[in-house]
């Protein structure tokens, strides 16, 4: 029995790779198995190699590893791209009737299945990938019936005949392998359980969190890899009285979202690196007008167009410092897919409580990765909504001046002014991008300028005191070796600990979801003999922040190939880094 199985399908863009992988992932989840997926696709509109990988186990899995057990190869390149991960026990499913002759190493098991012919007999050549899934089920000892519900979900809208044809295609693949191969030597036998899991990716979790938080207006422009947030909300937000607007560009999108927030709605926009560049012009207006707004940045490889479909954590400095002048803001970076849900809820609360822009920083790896969770991981009853100093008709009087004007930018001890929405009695006011007085009227008075700047900055200090800017910790809390990470690296680090423990290396891991404000790690770093910061960028942007905070040099593991960290790879990197000297002061 193989508790932990790694499966992949690969081919050219347009071969239905993504839908094939998604169907198998859903079937595995329905069978009570945990799933963790990884996608590889080219940064161009048409053509190029693409792959969908699934790691599955009865235990929770949080990372990809350098091993492939079953590979569905629709092209020779699929085999070539994955040779380093294939092993003697690997089985490669391919279609020998196609025009290419598969070059498969002798030590691996070649499973030649006439995918196209069997698909045509079942109702159409387009179903060849489903035939391959049926073959994979037979090889792994996975009941093909688990595919049925996933096929119904995928093709149900196209009619019962399409669904039945796909079921027939899956069984054709299963029966062909059963009748023509004896693969018992591979030893695969996927265990199933009665557990019921939710399968979703990071962008879906962000969208779900936005709905749970009460987001009722979303404006965005399509951009890889953030687009699926808008796709998730479209058709769902309307059920709650909300709206999604596709703007003509990113600058329009953030300004529309700003308008929605000014009107009193919980509003957000989402984009990636190149879109954040365009939105920068509006960051200052959001902060100066003290409008609560959530801005999601799903990072990808840059700069410029870079590699739109590849992983990177290179936008941290932009989220922290983007925009001219001094812009108070919060930067929250979920460290796991389920945390994408909870940190999105928190981002909306922070935005309204402190009337500031909140950057929700994710990345491509987390956005497209699908993972299984128990339903209770997203307990809607635990969601709390805090709209801050949103005043009602009974409270508005205390915020009026002697002439009855609402002081929307009143100077307060905590830096947070009252907030009124359009239509509220006596709540009429204005806010502009110009410096203003308490009423929102433009001013160049030196005293009022200082009061307003100090007031806006004081909100951040208030938040430092009131909120819990904590971190998550795992591993050996007494270990002399400390590893710090942020964002999507947490899962790979958690599993890397298993490899390190096997080698007798004890490590304490701190995973930080708050970039600004962020937790004080001075005591933790001082207590450690070695401190390593792990991140997916070239310059060590988070490591720079840590060094600034603690005035101590740290070691760095940086990956900027466009590919996420893998658990076994990361364990090797940590082992090697521990033997190096700390950089000079």
UniProtKB/TrEMBL annotation:
<comment type="subunit">
    <text>Heterotetramer of the KorA, KorB, KorC and KorD subunits.</text>
</comment>
<protein>
    <recommendedName>
        <fullName>2-oxoglutarate synthase subunit KorA</fullName>
        <ecNumber>1.2.7.3</ecNumber>
    </recommendedName>
</protein>
<dbReference type="InterPro" id="IPR002869">
    <property type="entry name" value="Pyrv_flavodox_OxRed_cen"/>
</dbReference>
<dbReference type="InterPro" id="IPR019752">
    <property type="entry name" value="Pyrv/ketoisovalerate_OxRed_cat"/>
</dbReference>
<dbReference type="Pfam" id="PF01558">
    <property type="entry name" value="POR"/>
</dbReference>
<keyword id="KW-0670">Pyruvate</keyword>
<dbReference type="GO" id="GO:0006082">
    <property type="term" value="P:organic acid metabolic process"/>
</dbReference>
<dbReference type="InterPro" id="IPR022367">
    <property type="entry name" value="2-oxoacid/accept_OxRdtase_asu"/>
</dbReference>
<dbReference type="GO" id="GO:0047553">
    <property type="term" value="F:2-oxoglutarate synthase activity"/>
</dbReference>
<feature type="domain" description="Pyruvate/ketoisovalerate oxidoreductase catalytic">
    <location>
        <begin position="13"/>
        <end position="173"/>
    </location>
</feature>
<dbReference type="GO" id="GO:0006979">
    <property type="term" value="P:response to oxidative stress"/>
</dbReference>
<dbReference type="InterPro" id="IPR009014">
    <property type="entry name" value="Transketo_C/PFOR_II"/>
</dbReference>
<dbReference type="InterPro" id="IPR029061">
    <property type="entry name" value="THDP-binding"/>
</dbReference>
<dbReference type="Pfam" id="PF01855">
    <property type="entry name" value="POR_N"/>
</dbReference>
<dbReference type="InterPro" id="IPR050722">
    <property type="entry name" value="Pyruvate:ferred/Flavod_OxRd"/>
</dbReference>
<feature type="domain" description="Pyruvate flavodoxin/ferredoxin oxidoreductase pyrimidine binding">
    <location>
        <begin position="209"/>
        <end position="453"/>
    </location>
</feature>
<keyword id="KW-0560">Oxidoreductase</keyword>
<dbReference type="InterPro" id="IPR002880">
    <property type="entry name" value="Pyrv_Fd/Flavodoxin_OxRdtase_N"/>
</dbReference>
<dbReference type="GO" id="GO:0044272">
    <property type="term" value="P:sulfur compound biosynthetic process"/>
</dbReference>
């Amino acid at each position: 029995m193989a508790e932990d199985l790694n499966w992949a399908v690969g081919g050219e863009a347009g071969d239905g790779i993504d839908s094939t992988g998604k169907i198998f992932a859903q079937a595995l989840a329905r069978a009570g198995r945990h799933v963790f997926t990884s996608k590889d696709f080219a940064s161009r509109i048409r053509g190029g190699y693409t792959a969908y990988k699934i790691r599955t186990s009865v235990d929770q899995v949080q990372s990809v590893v350098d091993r492939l057990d079953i590979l569905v190869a629709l092209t020779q390149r699929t085999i070539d791209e994955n040779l380093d991960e294939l092993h003697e026990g690997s089985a490669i499913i391919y279609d020998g009737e196609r025009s290419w002759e598969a070059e498969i190493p002798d030590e691996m098991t070649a499973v030649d299945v006439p995918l196209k012919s069997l698909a045509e007999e079942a109702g159409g050549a387009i179903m060849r990938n489903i035939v391959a899934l049926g073959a994979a089920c037979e090889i792994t000892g996975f009941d093909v019936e688990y595919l049925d519900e996933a096929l119904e979900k995928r093709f149900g809208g196209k009619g019962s005949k399409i669904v039945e044809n796909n079921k027939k295609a899956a069984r054709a693949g299963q029966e062909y392998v059963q009748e023509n191969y004896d693969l018992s030597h591979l030893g695969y036998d996927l265990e199933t359980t009665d557990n019921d899991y939710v399968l979703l990716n990071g962008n879906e979790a962000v969208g779900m969190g936005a709905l749970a938080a009460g987001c009722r207006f979303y404006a965005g422009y399509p951009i890889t890899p953030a687009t699926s947030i808008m796709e998730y909300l479209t058709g769902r937000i309307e059920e709650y009285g909300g709206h999604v607007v596709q703007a003509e560009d990113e600058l329009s999108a953030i300004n529309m979202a700003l308008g929605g927030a000014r009107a009193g709605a919980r509003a957000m926009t989402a984009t990636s690196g190149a879109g954040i560049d365009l939105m920068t012009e509006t960051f200052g207006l959001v902060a100066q007008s003290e409008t609560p707004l959530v801005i999601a940045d799903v990072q990808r490889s840059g700069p410029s167009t870079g590699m739109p479909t590849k992983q990177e954590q290179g936008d941290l400095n932009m989220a922290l410092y983007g925009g001219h002048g001094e812009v108070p803001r919060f930067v929250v970076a979920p460290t796991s897919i389920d945390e994408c849900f909870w940190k999105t809820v928190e981002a909306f609360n922070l935005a309204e409580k402190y009337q500031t822009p909140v950057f929700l920083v994710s990345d491509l790896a987390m956005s497209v990765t699908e993972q299984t969770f128990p339903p209770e991981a997203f307990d809607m009853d635990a969601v709390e909504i805090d709209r801050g100093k949103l005043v009602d008709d009974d409270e508005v009087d205390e915020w009026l001046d002697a002439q009855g004007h609402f002081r929307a930018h009143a100077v307060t001890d905590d830096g947070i002014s009252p907030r009124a929405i359009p239509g509220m009695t006596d709540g009429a006011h204005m806010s502009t991008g110009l410096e203003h007085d308490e009423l929102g009227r433009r001013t160049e008075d030196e005293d009022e300028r200082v009061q307003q700047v100090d007031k806006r900055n004081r909100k951040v200090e208030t938040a430092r005191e009131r909120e819990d800017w904590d971190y998550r910790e795992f591993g050996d809390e007494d270990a002399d070796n400390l590893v710090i990470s942020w964002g999507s690296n947490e899962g790979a680090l958690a599993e890397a600990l298993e490899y390190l423990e096997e080698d007798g290396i004890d490590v304490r891991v701190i995973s930080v979801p708050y970039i600004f404000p962020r937790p004080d790690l001075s005591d933790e770093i001082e207590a450690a003999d070695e401190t390593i910061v792990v991140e997916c960028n070239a310059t060590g942007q988070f490591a720079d922040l840590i060094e600034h905070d603690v005035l101590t040099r740290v070691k760095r593991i940086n990956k900027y190939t466009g590919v996420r960290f893998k658990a076994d790879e990361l364990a090797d990197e940590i082992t090697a880094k521990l033997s190096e000297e700390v950089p000079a002061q």
